[in-house]
């Protein structure tokens, strides 16, 4: 494999996998003026892109032969291997960019698979829904060999702002997992809170005026969270303005209110139990962020 730090514009790109995200990737590449070759197990999925100027490959090997970079956007790693095993020889000496979802261990296995076959491999994670691919504000995370990334940065930028995270191949999917966890936790908090108000016949629309119009931007300020990130790294959780023990009292109230109102209570109960465990481990006099010390450990076996 040859690794160069010189940035180049790769005009010939092949795309494997034409689900909603794959179609969005293909459309963005065509808008950037790339010579795009596409393949999908169901050939007519390519019709939309072919009309826009893409070339339809009959086989995976044909697609890999056509380009210097092959991007895969498939359901899972099992599918990736099943598809790429047909074109390993054609991919040798070229670049493979995986934008499928998975786990860090799967990314490491894919890197080993690629290295054994002489393929330069980058792992990526798309952080926006299909309509935003290629648009301003779109971000795609990458990890792997920095020389490979730097060489193809210009091409990757056509899909979204390419953020390089490091040589550890598992970082892109790990960041993706962490960010999605934040998203789901936030949404679940909003949904459960709305259910609490719904139990008193307050509409979600009315609750949103206070909850999302004032409370979240003012009280749960993301800029303030960012300022406190160094405290997490330093394990410094001063309880001057409020302790974890005090917050546990609030979590107990939330759990009890959920039960009294006939609302699903597993979510607040879990938060309460986590706070209880942190207090039991000696963090009660520190602030709520001390629960981070609990999260850094593996869950106890039941």
Tell me what you see in this structure.
By secondary structure, the protein is of the alpha/beta class. It has 2 domains: 12-168, NAD(P)-binding Rossmann-like Domain (Rossmann fold, 3-Layer(aba) Sandwich), CATH 3.40.50; 175-295, Orthogonal Bundle (N-(1-d-carboxylethyl)-l-norvaline Dehydrogenase, domain 2). 51% of the residues lie in helices and 12% in strands. The chain has 15 helices and 8 strands. The protein has helices spanning 20-31, 47-51, 60-66, 77-84, 88-91, 104-116, 146-151, 153-156, 171-198, 204-218, 222-227, 229-234, 244-260, 266-283, 291-295, and strands spanning 12-16, 35-39, 55-56, 69-72, 95-98, 120-126, 139-144, 161-164. The chain has an 8-stranded mixed β-sheet, sandwiched between helices. Strand 2, helix 2 and strand 3 form a beta-alpha-beta unit. Helix 9 crosses helix 10 and helix 13 (244-260) runs antiparallel to helix 14 (266-283). The longest helix has 28 residues, at 171-198. The chain is elongated, with a radius of gyration of 24 Å. The two termini are 48 Å apart. The model is unreliable at 1-5 (pLDDT under 50).
Observed structural traits:
eight-stranded mixed β-sheet; 12% strand; 51% helix; alpha/beta; N-(1-d-carboxylethyl)-l-norvaline Dehydrogenase, domain 2; Rossmann fold; 8 strands; 302 residues; disordered N terminus
CATH-derived architecture of the largest domain = 3-Layer(aba) Sandwich
Q: What is the level 1 CATH name of the largest domain?
A: Alpha Beta
Cα radius of gyration in angstroms = 24 Å
Helix content: 40-55%
Tally of separate helices = 15
What's the overall average pLDDT, rounded? 94
What percent strand?
5-15%
Number of strands: 8
